[in-house]
Task: structure prediction
Amino acid sequence: MKPEHFSERQVDVDGWQVNLTTYKLGEKWHSKADNVSPGAALARVVAESREAAEERALARAKELLSRTKRHTV
Amino acid sequence: MSASYAHPEVLVNTEWVAAHAQDPSIRVVEVDVDTKAYDEGHVPGAIAWAWNTQLCDTTVRDILPKPAFEALMTQSGISNDTTVVLYGDNNNWFAAWALWQMKMYGHKDARIMDGGRKKWLAEGRDVETAAPKTAPAARAYQASGPDYSLRAFLPEVQRAQKSASAVMIDVRSPQEFSGEILAPPGLPETCQRGGHIPGARSVPWGKACNDDGTFKSVDELQKLYGAEGVSQAKPVIAYCRIGERSSHTWFVLKYLLGVSNVTNYDGSWTEWGNLVGAPVEKGAAKSAGQA
Result:
């Protein structure tokens, strides 16, 4: 099997930069959302379409990012 | 013409791995925090190591004890003379952790696949989902060490901080360095205080990588780290939050730039930022050259 349609783009989620990596493997679409800096995976989703995979990955990332507190320095 | 890395033998590219992954003298290992990414699809013939359960002592906070490390190698079909090629997600964070640990235990030939999992997928190379059947190594693996000249423990970091006897490189994000956030965005806070070790320089780990996940050229790396005081003249200590991002920077400094005295402080911010009475500095990084 070969991954196809690999793409990577950055999305702003409530003020946080999220890197969205998506590719198709067989009949399924895989999408990963990471937090850019440092780059840790927040969500990995497998779905039937690119749109569904990215939407669910971003939704999970949004949920996790909403828990991050910004402290005054 | 660009200069070459100090130890080019520790890097292989994706093309080389595609040609050699099935060689009996070579073992390819995908290393990540867990095996979720591996299970989605991996380099054909590669086995998986999970950082959270297989590359750490799961009781005491520590690297694997020597017997556990030897058992992992043997069960993975790795002999003392096997060429081990490590790769993973996050531009090889956890692969670098595995290499750091393998070097502490004296493994001779451990390499990193430049660009990691991301580059392999982006190039549309073959992947498989089934894990290969792995026979244990015919002879039990025998580790040496551990070689603690590659690792920094708290007391020496404290001494270095007090006496400014080492260059301290904080490889976390600028927001973690300043104290604005206490953990990477989206992850649980794991320390009581935010900020950085006083005197540390900020060089986020990702600055060592190109967009495709490969390492930057030696000229670019020298410029990047040289501007923050890294040279052969002083020991260098790299740290992050739990020691995995800093093992990536440790790899860059040790093998790509050839810095002879560089250690990974794997206690990192989850140790320092929870210590009672430890000095903490807050605020953004000073620009290169500023004290």
In short: The first strand of chain A starts at residue 4 and ends at 13.
